[in-house]
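Subject: complex prediction, re-run

Hi both,

The earlier run crashed halfway through, so I resubmitted it with identical inputs.
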Amino acid sequence: MRLQDVQIVLVRPKRTGNVAAACRAMKNMGLSRLLLVEPPEDLATSEDRALAYGAFDVLDGARRAPTLADAVAETTVVLATSGKHEGAAQTARDAAEGLRARAEGEGAAFVFGPEASGLTRAELDRCHGLVHIPTSAEHASLNLAQAVMVVAYEVFLALGGPGGPAPAHAEDAPVPAGELEAVLADLRAALLDIGFLNPQNPDAILAELRRLLARSRPTAREATLLRGLARQIRWSGRP
Amino acid sequence: MRLQDVQIVLVRPKRTGNVAAACRAMKNMGLSRLLLVEPPEDLATSEDRALAYGAFDVLDGARRAPTLADAVAETTVVLATSGKHEGAAQTARDAAEGLRARAEGEGAAFVFGPEASGLTRAELDRCHGLVHIPTSAEHASLNLAQAVMVVAYEVFLALGGPGGPAPAHAEDAPVPAGELEAVLADLRAALLDIGFLNPQNPDAILAELRRLLARSRPTAREATLLRGLARQIRWSGRP
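This time it finished cleanly. Structure:
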């Protein structure tokens, strides 16, 4: 994977100053692809835009998406940054180094939540993995732009140097997040049909299946296999 | 050397917002000793003090010195950060890791110059070494507080942990191959039952599922989930 395959996704950022400072940090570290979900209303006019010094192209070239799911539909690896150190989180350094082995043209997204509240449970579950920035226990809450800085810095160190990415093999390429969601939607319907998922709360188990499948990075062939399996489960369960 | 032996020295910073944001970054990374040479005049009153969220003790506890030489007189290792990549500079990561070998109680200082102009030649020469933060050639100029963030982060990773990677959580450990085979045996029986696998040749498809699951390295929890799923498929397929 190359630097240009990496996106930063800011979900509902409250402060234009943080978005602007994040743009400068990205540009410092060779990243240019910014995706915004519900950005602040004064993004085009605020004086805090000045914090994007040298990176107004990143700020003004940011794409927008109505939801996180839309933002990452084309992306292969979707990693949520979380202040809470949940069990399965990998460090920013390990996550960045993990991208090095991935093929050119695969996309990765690092997702950052709003300043105070962070990503919702549903948004965290929508991602394929969690990334944690190590901090002092005494004050673990990083400013949003500072968190983007650390992640971008690690990505630059991992991908910015010499030593090219793995070549892409079309038939081995993992499917993007949108296609993985289609697989999960089929599995969801099938597993509800046979009573494996609780209709009151199907999504907790489904989130576990999503993380499991996302880690294995299914190919198009495997996605087709899994969708066929889901169809067969539904068919066999019919009275 | 320990985290408390490391100082951050800001020389003639222009903006209170940068000093305040640097305090938060320091506190996030377990650093508390800030030394200021000619700080901005509105440091005690500016609204931008809010950027020191959670770290007002660092901001208000900062010591002052009239010159860089006074500031670092008691310090063993004095490292200047420089945007220019001069020949003798070491990276922030190497510099931080180099501190690990130093004795407890020795002091280290990372020195940062003013936002636009940087340290003077005489100040650079006063330091024992140069530290460089790797950046994209296209936009090498980091915001002052962002530069403090990266250095503090590297210092924390080098000195803040127990040394070496964090221990793995037992519940995240992947199951051994034997348990993965038990999952596959259950899936095999279930998928034969519902006619997804061809009884004449079930193992080709099963091998694909094995590769897919092995890549994701399921945990014990996930293995149990998959075996429960296989049971439910069999049960639902019964006439």
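The radius of gyration of chain B is 28 Å.

- K.
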